């Protein structure tokens, strides 16, 4: 199986507006060439625009655990679905929520036919989230995020343990990892450790040429 690659646009300057479109199109061009599965995790303001400009599946970077109603400044799941999202990233280290909120969002995403990807910071949290049955769980070692040092090279034992322990709880959820993934070698190492793919951000979003950067990672 080809690795699953999730590119997290975060709130980098080139995640927004015309620049965001350019990054998405550059990635799409590479994806067509190499036939890998790449997902774009974009700011909520960009979902509608980017879902019109690219065929790549779009993930929201996070929603609120609410239904429609009087919730100023909050975003319900229905809104990102309507805007064109294919899935939702939640509980990223840079935007943590509690287990009750994770449960609400994962369960509602199933009803709305949105994919759910929950980030966790350690094995214990991975096991707790596995009971909720999201489509994907991604282990991200907080200290390595944006560091250029990859989790798959720096913490192989942690990934192995995560895969082993989480599988005991739930065999269906697809397991991923992220943090500092910057080279093809990092991606290959993550797969060898038992994950099905990676989340990455800075290696692509901070590159002078994001298209070339993703090509180096997946070719
Ligand atoms: O969600 C992916 C992210 O947190 C990893 O960031 O910049 O280390 O690839 P980065």
What does the model show?
This protein has one domain (4-218): TIM Barrel (Alpha-Beta Barrel). It has an eight-stranded parallel barrel with strand order 1-2-3-4-5-6-7-8, surrounded by seven helices. Helix 1 (17-34) runs parallel beside helix 10 and helix 5 runs parallel beside helix 7. The longest helix has 18 residues, at 17-34. The model has no long low-confidence stretch (mean pLDDT 97). The chain is an alpha/beta fold. It contains ten helices and eight strands. Bound molecules: SN-glycerol-3-phosphate. The site of SN-glycerol-3-phosphate has 14 residues, from strand 8 and helix 9.
Secondary-structure element string: EHEHEHEHEHEHHEHEHH
Shape: globular
Bound molecules: SN-glycerol-3-phosphate
CATH architecture: Alpha-Beta Barrel
In short:
This protein is an alpha/beta fold and 219 residues long. The chain has a single domain (4-218), classed as TIM Barrel. The chain has helices at residues 17-34, 47-53, 77-83, 99-111, 123-130, 151-154, 156-169, 184-192, 202-205, 210-218; strands at residues 4-8, 37-42, 58-60, 87-90, 115-120, 136-140, 174-178, 197-200.
What's the structural blueprint in terms of helices and strands?
Layout: E1 4-8, H1 17-34, E2 37-42, H2 47-53, E3 58-60, H3 77-83, E4 87-90, H4 99-111, E5 115-120, H5 123-130, E6 136-140, H6 151-154, H7 156-169, E7 174-178, H8 184-192, E8 197-200, H9 202-205, H10 210-218
Parallel strand pairs: 1-2, 1-8, 2-3, 3-4, 4-5, 5-6, 6-7, 7-8
Helix pairs in contact: 1-10, 5-7
Bound molecules: SN-glycerol-3-phosphate (G3P).
